[in-house]
Amino acid sequence: MSSKEQVLVARPTAGARRRWLRSGHRSLHGSELSWSMAFVAPYAAVLIAFAVYPIAYGLWIASKPSLYAELFSSDEYFDAVITTALFVGVGANVNMFLALLLSGFFMKRCWWVKALLVLSMVPWALPTQPAFIAFHWMLIYPGFIDALSWKLLGVDGPDWFNNYWLAVCANIIAYNWKTMPFWTVILLAGRMAIPQDLYDAADIDGATGFRRFIHLVVPLLGNLYLICTLLCSIWMIGDFNTADIVTSGAPNGETDVLATLGVDYLFDHGKPALGVAAAVSVLPVLIPIGIALMRRLQQREVQL
Fold first, then answer.
1. Assuming Cys at both sites, which of 6, 91, 123, 135 could form a disulfide with 172, CB separation 3.0 to 4.6 Å?
2. Residues 222, 303: contact at Cβ < 8 Å?
């Protein structure tokens, strides 16, 4: 008997596997069941204690309709909704678009480009709090940016924390600076998964530069790009550190997002139920994004 025939004999067919499962071998008994329960029990306990119970308790706290009536009648809540929409809508799209462009730059096969790729990961590796505190002190007026503007241009720099739009831009810039290296590496890995033969075929057809990017890279990375954008949006909706540390809600709490507003209700106003309700009010947005993310993850191909 040849080696190929031995492999075919040793490998069970699909029908044999189905009969093996139907015969009751998929269920565990005796010591196997005990050991499996012993291994699963710690993970189940941690999941229930730190995920299921807090979420269920929070939903129970925020289940009163009167909380949402009070929440929706608050001007600061709608200001936080608008600021969150700007922060996430502009920040996530700018973040992913720049990461896509940077991933193309890092595809170059030069040693200094590879060195820049390693250096570009430094913002992502830095702890969040010290990095955003440094941003705060650079943008504060007068601060490093103001002094640099005066030295180079002879004019005062902008007062970032005394203008709503500049403060929102400061939050977006700080968050994108911190997280863009992560998305750049993911999109770079997606670019590297594209077969080189497709690039060679595009070169033969005369599609170079911008045309190759539009007709080759964009269609093949479309699914990965959308997944990263949805995931980035989910993370930005729940982001607390940026608005709290970089601008601290300046000016006058106008740049508070829903995450910081919920904490303000808890500690500053002494209304924990209202703070939880502010967080729960995001679920009508988070659930569709999560469903869309899971649907896109079911597509295993790089292509659309």
1. 91
2. yes
